[in-house]
Amino acid sequence: MVLAARRSSSPEATKALEELCRAYWYPLYAYARRRGCAKEDAEDLTQAFFARLLEKDFLRAASREKGRFRTFMLVACQRFMANEWDRARALKRGGGQTILSLNLATAERRYHDEPADPLSADKIFERRWALTLIEKTMSRLKTEYTAAGKGEDFAQLKTFLTADSGEIPYVQLAAELKQNEGALRVAVHRLRKRFRELFRQEVAQTVSDPGEIEAELRHLLSALGG
User: Fold this and answer.
1) In the list 25, 26, 50, 110, which could disulfide-bond 100, CB 3.0-4.6 Å?
2) Low-confidence ranges of the chain (pLDDT < 70)
3) What is the reported pTM?
4) What's the pLDDT tens digit per position in 60-94?
C-alpha cells in the first residue's frame, strides 16, 4: 500500500495510505510520549508527521528504508522529529499546516491506562505496534462472527484466544454455557484458527515480501513478551 502510494497520485492510493495512517498512528503517539513529549506536543507531532507523510516527496524520501512498515514508520518519524518538527510547529502556528484527522481524543487515556514499565521508547513502539495488529484482528474477527449471527459466541469465547489449549476448562464452560462439550471444543478451535489466519493477513499487509511474514510474526510475539 505504501509503495503504491509512492507511485501514484490517484485518490485511491491517497485514501489507502490515509487509512493505513489512521490504523497505525497510536504506536507513534506512545513513542513520542515516551521520548518525553508532553501530551499537547505529542498530539501536534503525530498529526504533523502524518500530514507530512502524505506529501509524496516526503514519502519517497522516507521510504528508502525497505521492508517492514513498522520500521519504515519509526525511521520516518525519527527523521521527522530530528529534522522537520520545528518547521512543522512554525507552520502550525502560522495556520499553514494541513492536518490529517486522527482520533487523538482517546490517546492520552490509552497511554495512561497501559501498565507502567521501564521499556525504552523504541520498545514501547514495538509493543504498541503488535497490540495494534491484535486489536485490528479482533475487530475483523468480531465483525465476521456478528455478520454470521454468532456475535454472542464470539463474546463468550474470545477470552480463550490466548489461553493454552490445556488450560481451557471445557467441562465447566460447557455446563455454564449449556452446550455440548464436543461442540464447544470445535467452536473454540475454529475461533482460534480463524484468529491466526486473520492475524497473519494483518501482518502480511505490513511487510514488503511474503518471505518476511514468519520473521515478523516471531518479532511481534517477542515484543509482546517484553
Assistant:
1) 50
2) 1-9, 13, 56-67, 88-101, 115-117, 226
3) 0.81
4) 665 545 568 888 889 889 988 888 777 766 656 54
What contacts 24+ positions apart, CB below 8 Å, involve 58-63? Answer: 59/2, 59/5, 59/6, 59/17, 60/6, 63/2, 63/3, 63/6
DSSP, collapsed to helix, strand or coil, labels residue 164 as coil
Same domain, residue pair 222 and 165? yes
With contact defined as beta carbons under 8 Å apart, do 60 and 6 qualify? yes
For residue 130, give the C-alpha cell. Answer: 503488535
Q: Tell how far CA 122 is from the center of its chain.
A: 15
Selection from 50, 53, 48, 54 nearest residue 15 by Cα: 54
209-218: pLDDT as tens digits = 889 999 999 9
Domain of 46? 1-114
One domain for residues 137 and 92? no
Cell numbers linked to 206: 505490513
Instruction: Look up residue 207 and give its DSSP letter.
Output: S
Q: What is the CA radius of gyration of the chain?
A: 20
- For residues 140 and 199, state if they share a domain: yes
* Alpha-carbon span 168 to 79, nearest angstrom: 46
Q: How far apart are CA 149 and CA 125, in angstroms?
A: 36
**CB distance 129 to 70 below 8 Å:** yes
Q: How far apart are the first and last CA of the chain?
A: 29
